[in-house]
Amino acid sequence: MKVLMVGSGNVASVLGRQCKQKGHEIVAIASRNPQTGMTLSEELNTRFISVQDAGNMDADIFIIAVSDSAVKEVASSLLVPGKLVVHTAGAVSMEVLQNSSQNYGVLYPLQSLRREMKSIPGVPLLIDGNNDHSLGLLANLAHSLSENVERANDEQRAKLHVAAVFVSNFSNHLYLLAEGYCQAEHLDFKLLYPLIVETASRLKDASPAELQTGPAFRKDISTLEKHLRLLSNYPKLKLTYTRLTDSIMNF
Ligand SMILES: NC(=O)c1ccc[n+]([C@@H]2O[C@H](COP(=O)([O-])OP(=O)(O)OC[C@H]3O[C@@H](n4cnc5c(N)ncnc54)[C@H](OP(=O)(O)O)[C@@H]3O)[C@@H](O)[C@H]2O)c1
Q1: Which CATH number is 168's domain given?
Q2: Which of 21, 28, 48, 182 could join 189 via S-S bond, C-beta 3.0 to 4.6 A?
Q3: pLDDT for residue 122
């Protein structure tokens, strides 16, 4: 399939690399950022063009992998009647693409992607299309990129995005708070890595409802009070600790 990628950030880099690895032709990288655009186009052995020139290229599928707030604006300047145009955002409606072509859809990777990633094994690709033709073409591409392809409409995708914020962004924020606390107390945060990995890996076999442990779950009041005393010099951490403890105890 001939693929044109708009954008040169995390998703454009990882999806572009994956498309190339799976034998698709990347006809161009269209990017407003010449630096990252040229780096990516050189890696993928294709040409670098401006976003405004994307519509002049011959491609089967145009993937708009730009910031959520820019998808609509980029789509408004991309007029490619008959071609398939998709975006990669969880929280943006498919309908923002309706003026670009009569065939449009969404290719949303449900994973935290960083431009350095060389492959995306097992990443769920959530797809949607405005008609059977769009959906069929996109399904062909998606199945060539991942063994884990599901259909999700705008509402389902947005709700999964909310859940993704909980499991990924919020848990990482908690790691960050714990790392700061360890640094302030001259403790080695790396000692917690096996615990982090073990806690996440248990989810393969059981629901989080069956896996909750800790003093809040056991309603171990003396330990909770001791922890709060240890956090007395860290008001923000103490607040987070209290809120999450309440959430666990009231579940
Ligand atoms: N990263 C993830 O984990 C992930 C996962 C699933 C879905 N997504 C979705 O994929 C999309 C891209 O995310 P990303 O992580 O790749 O973002 P990113 O790394 O920040 O890259 C964003 C790209 O959009 C370009 N851009 C921003 N505003 C633009 C505009 N007005 N006109 C033209 N280009 C513009 C940026 O160019 P500059 O370099 O010039 O700013 C950059 O190339 C988003 O919709 C995001 O929600 C991301």
Answers
A1: 1.10.1040.20
A2: 182
A3: 87
Whether residue 88 has its Cβ less than 6 Å from ligand 1:
yes
| Whether residue 161 sits in one domain with residue 127 | no
pLDDT band at 24 (very low <50, low <70, confident <90, very high): very high
Name the nearest CA neighbour of 243 among 251, 158, 63, 40: 251
Residues 6+ apart with CB under 8 A from 140: 1
pLDDT digits (tens, 9 = 90+) for 205-233: 999 999 999 999 999 999 999 999 999 99
For residue 234, what are the domain limits?
Answer: 157-249
Gap from CA of 74 to ligand 1 centroid (Å): 11
Rounded distance, CA 243 to CA 210, Å?
21
16 lines ligand 1 (CB under 6 A): no
- Find the 89 Cα to ligand 1 centroid distance in Å: 9
The pLDDT of residue 121: 83
Final residue belonging to a domain, choices 83, 117, 152: 152
Closest residue (by CA) to atom 33 of ligand 1? 32
Are 28 and 67 within one domain? yes
Question: Is residue 53 a contact partner of residue 30, using CB atoms and an 8 Å limit?
Answer: yes
Single out the residue in 133, 152, 171 at which a domain terminates.
152
